[in-house]
Here is the input.
Amino acid sequence: MDSTASTSATAIAQQTLSFQTNSWLVALSLAVCAVCGVLSWLAMQRNGFQRGAVVLELLRCGIVALAALLLNQPEWLEDYRSAEQPAFAVLIDESSSMQTRDVLASDAGSEGVVIAPQTRAEAIEPLTDASFWKPLEDKAKVIVTRFPADQTSDSTDLAKPLNSVLDNASNILGVLVVSDGDWNSGDPPSSVASRYRTMGIPVYGLAVGSPKRLPDIELLSVDTPTFGIVNKGVRIPFTIDSSLPRDTTTQVSVTTSDGERLTKEVRVRAMARTTDAIVWTPKKEGDYTINVEVPTSPMETILTNNTASAPISIRQEKLKVLVVDTYPRWEYRYLRNALSRDPGVDVACLLLHPDLDKVGGGNRDYIKSFPESLEELAQYDVVFLGDIGIEPGQLTPEQCKLIKGLVEFQAAGLVFIPGSRGYSLSLAQTELETLMPVVLDDSQPRGIGTKTPMQMELTESGRRSLLTKLADTQEENVDVWMGLPGFQWHAAVARAKAGTEILAVHESAMGTQGRMPLLVTKTFGTGKILFMGTDGVWRWRRGVEDKYHYRFWSQVVRWMAYQRNMAKGESMRFYFSPDSPRIGQVITLRANVMQTSGEPLNEGEVTARVEAPSGKVEVVRLASGGEDSWGAFEGRYTANEPGSHRVTLLCKQTAESLETSFFVQGLTRERIGQAARPKVLEELARLTGGKTLTIQDRDQWIEVLKSVPEPPSTIRRVPLWSHPATVGLLLGALTLFWIGRKAIGMV
Here is the structure.
């Protein structure tokens, strides 16, 4: 059995002369030649059989005979046949899906007794033995190729090995594809069929695996967040895919790497996917591994896909928040209290009250001036801008530029909460105008007040958003929002800008493009922005105290600071987007790098070494954003594997490094337990003139392959009737004939 093929020289097997003619054309040719012969004989008699006359008449007969011959279109055929023994290619699928245990067999020693199913790979194991192909050696040598060549690959490309056979081998007798037919990347296998059909090479398919899913419960995915906070609940969502014939109830368990175990009773729906979650409250910081397990069911036939694990990093959180406002309105007071009482938040307040000569306050939460430098402002993860603008004694255009840079290059968050004095409208004259998610109506700068309380209504995006999640389930969450106390003032919003996401709208007020957006988010550069169009959120405390008000602002702060706090070192910060990457997505890797002096590094060589779960390593070079980028570097990485990816961030100029990781969620394309796809191989065989074989008819495989016809020879045709040499011969003969006639005085 050969594992490679070499191109051999070809030899001419046979040379023949053939005619493209019919019976009436042959008869006409013979008649013309006969008439010419009679006329030539009479001419020779008339000239007394002189030597010159005899030669000319023979030449005339030769010319007529040649013309009659060419009239029947003679061709010279050269039949080329390979001097090398024909080859038969065997392509064996070794992708992960071949580990599915669904090949049922009958015990030969017991009458029809069904034994335990084999994996697809075990069922085709005899084909990997060289002795299996010895009966074919008299007819052809066997070239065995296993695919995919990269065993860490998470995909199957059937078209690629089929094309490779034609590109790299010669004198191919036929091809046998041994696979479950589950291709999930590359061109469709049928796209190769035209090449095989043109070359007269049949493709045989040996389909392995059950075309129907066997009874099974599969733990499809575990979407653990990248990190959690000490003493705060972490939701661990999971999805179970069932092909069982009826519903079943099971105890899903979550075990952490430190031994803590949680369980939850889940009802798994038949022939469907079930999604649920378990909440875990970590007690201390560190790196953990979360193991999720679904107990096996007596009805299952595949027992290897009921567990999954994912890493999570637990941290002690301390987010720094800056709140800037003018008047101490109720929204400001309750927001400040909510953030001050949050153990994971360090709040700083700047109250630029126009009626006070002295800036600051009576406790440690207050600062006396806006941060003067980039380094001072960069310590804040989230900035709240209340009813404030660029009026005298408030913000300056330079400070607005600093805030913009903080959001764009440092992945910080920015929250706009306008008020009834309308100062926020003046921010449109600064660089913050591009960050504002909405366009305010300048004809109503002080907003709109109502006597009766009004409500916000969640949009479809708002129902799915983490920011608006005030209850555990989506249905309960909608009910909570409908029951929240209303507001009696809101900003006059003309419309939301392009590229924003509207989470909630006014229940009745209209803007220029429909109902007025009041809760809008936007991504700008590396940071996130939120616009809250009312200052009545503090009213949510009525009757429930801190339950909804604190939860909402806590979620806002953490959502905005999530990326910024993914990984931090003394002089480096690393973050990425999207927050929860999935297989196939392009992930943007970003870093902020500081020099040893504490200033941003604007030009340098920064690389990220990314190691996938399989051990495959890719080095991504991060490009600098320039002098005004606050030390921001950015690169791209495509995630092709699920699981934890380890990242080592390196900077050549500072000799600093930072190690962290991110988790790629989603399903593997090569899933164990899915049904086989024999129709893919059947179509290949039908289009190329081959046949499909079954795993049960093992004794017939060799006989079928032996019956494959020899590869067709290559025939080269030389049309003598139109060949330039033939035309030249005919013209030369005619020339000699007329010269001869002139020489003997016949002209």
Summary: The CA atoms of residues 385 and 432 lie 11 Å apart. The radius of gyration is 41 Å.
